[in-house]
Design goal:
Elements lengths: L1 H42 L5 H12 L4 H41 L3
């Protein structure tokens, strides 16, 4: 009985993970690419803070205004944590299934 409950939960988590991924990936790509570009342009490119501040404006969501900026930052963080947690859980379940199959084959 417990195995079917876990299997149903696994299917549901996989569905939600798949549905959320396209919504989470674009904001994360923007955040990562602007953050890395900002740092490399300053450190390796020799550009001043003023020259690359526009990247930080995009990176931090300042362009959305004072009301939406914290909302987008929070949603970005929650989306990342969701994808990490569900992805790790799905990976662990996969390893668990493989381990069980291996033990059955080995006669355990």
């Amino acid at each position: 009985m417990e195995g079917t409950t876990v299997a149903r939960l696994l299917v549901r988590v996989r569905q939600w993970h798949r549905l959320m991924a396209p919504l989470v990936v674009l904001p994360l790509l923007v955040t990562v690419s602007t953050g890395v570009t900002y740092r490399l342009a300053k450190d390796w490119g020799g550009l001043s803070r003023e020259q690359v501040h526009w990247l930080m404006t995009i990176h931090e969501g300042e362009w959305l205004g004072p009301v939406l900026e914290p909302v987008v930052v929070l949603l970005n963080a929650v989306g990342l944590l969701w994808m990490l947690a569900t992805g790790a859980w799905l990976l662990l379940q996969s390893f668990r299934r493989q381990w069980i199959a291996f033990r059955k084959e080995a006669g355990g």
